[in-house]
Amino acid sequence: MTQSKQQKITLANRPKGMPTKEDFKFVESEVPTPNGQEILVRTLYLSVDPYMRGRMQDTKSYIAPFELNKPITGGVVAEVVESKSDSFKKGDVVVGNIDWAEYTVVTEKEIRVIDPKVAPVTTHLGILGMTGLTAYFGLLDIGKPKEGETVVVSGAAGAVGSAVGQIAKIKGAKVVGIAGSDEKLEYLTKELGFDGAVNYKKDSFVDDLKKAVPDGVDVYFDNVGGDVTDAVFTLLNTNARIPLCGAISSYNAEGKDVGPRLQSAMIKTSATMKGFTVGNYASRFKEGATDLGKWLQEGKLKYEETIIEGFENTPDAFLGLFKGTNLGKQLVKVAEPMFAQL
Amino acid sequence: MTQSKQQKITLANRPKGMPTKEDFKFVESEVPTPNGQEILVRTLYLSVDPYMRGRMQDTKSYIAPFELNKPITGGVVAEVVESKSDSFKKGDVVVGNIDWAEYTVVTEKEIRVIDPKVAPVTTHLGILGMTGLTAYFGLLDIGKPKEGETVVVSGAAGAVGSAVGQIAKIKGAKVVGIAGSDEKLEYLTKELGFDGAVNYKKDSFVDDLKKAVPDGVDVYFDNVGGDVTDAVFTLLNTNARIPLCGAISSYNAEGKDVGPRLQSAMIKTSATMKGFTVGNYASRFKEGATDLGKWLQEGKLKYEETIIEGFENTPDAFLGLFKGTNLGKQLVKVAEPMFAQL
Do residues A215 and A150 lie in contact, with contact meaning Cβ atoms separated by under 8 Å? Predict the structure, then answer.
């Protein structure tokens, strides 16, 4: 062991509205010791994701809320420091959904080994991890884009959105992304090959969107909700499909989040809207990971990462998600490996 | 011919908000004469339906708007008065989607013969017609209720809603209806065998609904939208299905129809909401009609009709739909048959 004390991040408050740094508390503790068949891991990268905002509230959902004064948990890439399990050895690089901590003791079931030679380890928190699988299953299982159809994706320059658009292109659809800066629009059309991109922060957004989808909208992959979604709803084609992945525009709403009711538009178009979380597809992760890995190797799937250095900057990285400061997957680099070869 | 003049009802105005009698105009004309292979029919019963409110507006939808100063069209049971077609003969009872008129000349494709001996002819405008098929396909194809699941239906004492609840019972589900009077609640539970019924006009509605569905809501068949739907959305179970059939609460809204955004609840529950119209299932009508006819004969499916007498009262019958004055299917009896045996 190289150090005996470590930091964890716990949930200090359940935020009302936009979270602040004060909602997170850094707590010092002893580096724990593995017992039985446990494994001690050291965090290298951690993932901050919009869905975590929901877990900060004490409300019933598909996933239990974070507990007050307990460590926040999320996607982590770590190296094995000490193993009492036959399945893991010192220096293994692993991924799992574990504590926001510099060191964590985990059970065998909480982590799995990843191979740093196949793809950069950070991809397992992004395009080859839950992010990529979210895009893959939401788009293909619910959106079911057909060749020549028009797919619109909101939050298009984010980690999920950028994967959605590229997978839709692979399937032969016409893809229009909605994002919040000209830099992001350029990234979508120039780097990722989107057919169009529209800036929702411009006054001309509604008109711009209409012009960008002359044939209407067959699939709307929704990451944001709110006004952006209202605009897309006026352009739905008959039998439109709407995978509901996120509603980041509402996560920090303090009052009631109200808007035009959508039902009449859905009846008129026989549209289907389906909420989902990637966990629904756990039994098919292998299928998704295989396709995503193949497309990545073939160069058909690009990804971007925004990496903040330093465990102490984790709250800032998380808060940045709601300001749209990230391009692609937002990660925190917590440490350089000591035992693993990346 | 027994008369040479007849009345038609045309659309005089596109109403803003709640329609009034002044939006309909009675126009006298000659009784028309069939040419070629046409058929002259005499209206016996006509159907008034909430969806027609949408056709009074000049907006893009799944069905073309009614034209100003042209006859309104809808479901009609009529008798053949004069036929130039080999497929129809004087005295045949037919059903079709034709003009609101005492007499109409139609083509062979616009009508089909029905057998008055199998079931009362009015059932072809209700439980054995578009109404029953709407309930059948919306519930079974989108709602997919499983044995033991809880199905909630709004507008439950209406023509579609009462069929939905009974079909859900046939499929072994627990059924709770939402309606607007104690008389209707009693009809649902005592006559139709619903497991529960809740009055949305009571101050205690939200609590009453919660108590009525202790296991949450697996299927919500929505005929009304608005506040009623908002209340049901707080009670959705994981993987809930929501066939969107109508949104009668909003049809006459003058301002923007706004309410709480539903997306977050749908993501949390992985719920599926799908708008539909019965026309989507045209290729499967025979399947639906066969099942409905069988259940009707077996006494498993009951229906109620509210019949207003007199063609001149058609606008009142239509307007009553929005006040909830009807129990079951609202029909207008236009005339006694002269040639047909009912």
Answer: yes
